[in-house]
Amino acid sequence: MNYSEKLTESIQSVKPSGIRRFFDIVNEMDNVISLSVGEPDFKTPWHVREAGIRSLELGRTWYTPNRGFKELRAEIANFYKRKYNLTYNPDEEVVVTVGGSEAIDIALRCLVSAGDEVLLPQPSFVCYEPLTIMAGATPVVIETKAEDNFRLTAAQIEERITDRTKLLILPFPNNPTGAIMEREDLEQVAEVVKKHDLMVLSDEIYSELTYGGKKHISVAQIDGMLERTVVINGFSKAYAMTGWRLGYALGPREIIAMMTKLHQFCIMSAPTTAQYAAIEALKNGDRDIEHMCSEYDMRRRLVVDRLNEIGLSTFTPEGAFYAFPCIKSTGLSSEEFCTKLLKAKRVALVPGSAFGESGEGYVRLSYSYSLKHLKQALKLIEEFIKEL
Amino acid sequence: MDKLLHLLSENSTFSVSELASMLGEPEEYIAAQIREYENQGIIRGYRAVVNWDEVPGSGVLALIELKVAPQKQKGFDEIAERIMEFEEVESVYLMAGSYDLLLSVKGDTIQDVSAFVSKKLSALEGILATATHFMLRRYKENGISLFDTESEKDRREMGI
Predict the structure, then answer these.
(1) Most buried of A319, B40, B76, B148, CB within 10 angstroms?
(2) Model-level pTM?
(3) Does residue B160 belong to the interface with chain A, where contact is any CB pair within 8 Å?
(4) Candidates B1, B156, B157, partner chain A, best to mutate (most A CBs within 10 A)
(5) Per-residue pLDDT tens for B92-135?
(6) Which CATH number fits domain A3-42+287-387: 3.40.630.30, 3.90.1150.10, 3.30.1640.10, 2.40.50.100?
């Protein structure tokens, strides 16, 4: 049978993830020292795991309300109030999802469709482009630049706006660059967004991991932006809960109602055990975040200093847990660099090109690894550069 | 907690330059700080954490609980100081609870440790009772797992 006639054009037009393609090679090799994983190396804090276990012991294994447990939604609203001074009504303006990923998917499917254009800063996480295409809309890439500290500028947005532009995706703190947006940056972006009557999807999954005393600011905090913003966040990165698959979206009542309708038909409700654990995380997990964040911070400093010493010019990341060194000085493409490094020293990094064309010339190094592991890998990278 | 001490207590092989990077301080400051800790006696030494279970002929370790009669003025300090002098004794702690001092004692054989307890330790004035526990296996030492447990493996997958 000719399945390409049976499958939709849109899914067939989606390019496979560049990270995946590279890792099919990595998986064939033994004894690889990886700096490639995009999730915390910490285990979920024990008291949080215990809350999940306890719920299972009590036999609480049913579906939850479609939007998520009321108590969890209330704690999520408290969290955004406590951290960002934003007020969301837990009954109408919060929906609990299967990871931030589902929230991104349903937000896009509710906000854009055929003919709409979505502004997408790159380098950025790999899911936005495919999910925009599957929603029927057209991604319009904006390349963030090292000289702007990989921040998005209002002028860049202006250049790309057309009559069809409907939504801006704001992926900050950013994977893979480690860039953040400060208040002034967001205020300028907000001016353009309001002027052109756009909506914003703000993916704040790394919000709790910022460094150097710079706290994350949500674009929803900027004047007039609350009503234009769907905030995406979750438990994966802040609480080291990737495998629990739990995220959420916050936004205007009318939008969250539609997202909840879609969520209810395609998912029903987010994992029950994970929701119990997440309530505990939000209630008693602030210190865990502080501890993990300060560990990442030490690793970040070590990695950035060492990479610069080695001769790979590296922007100092201000959020998330990635360094994004420039490898242009080696004359290699980012994919060549990663392939050669893997073959010569068995160290796995991710080519920057996996995060969009503008990532070419860079590689992503995750510092979500023990200091010992990082030291060992950096030594091998140094040897590799010297032998080039 | 002091981050410098925390890092060194986890891994004393970090170089001054690595410590300076991680803590965001100048190298000179870190070097001076370490010297100061050494001078103050806060840092007492740098040594490897060895899994002696893997080293053939490395002997046996016992934990010994001691009940002692405290002395006027000096309390437990005097007897603790005398016990510390024995080279067989690795550590000495004053405890709250059903006994007073806890020692860890190293010997080549069980007989050696027994002889130490019966001949040297019990003979000291003020020792009221001893209880000797021989260690069978080390699982974790100074915060480091000595045991390749399932939970220590990096099982993370590449997502997308």
Answers:
(1) A319
(2) 0.89
(3) yes
(4) B156
(5) 999 999 999 999 999 999 999 999 999 999 999 899 999 999 99
(6) 3.90.1150.10
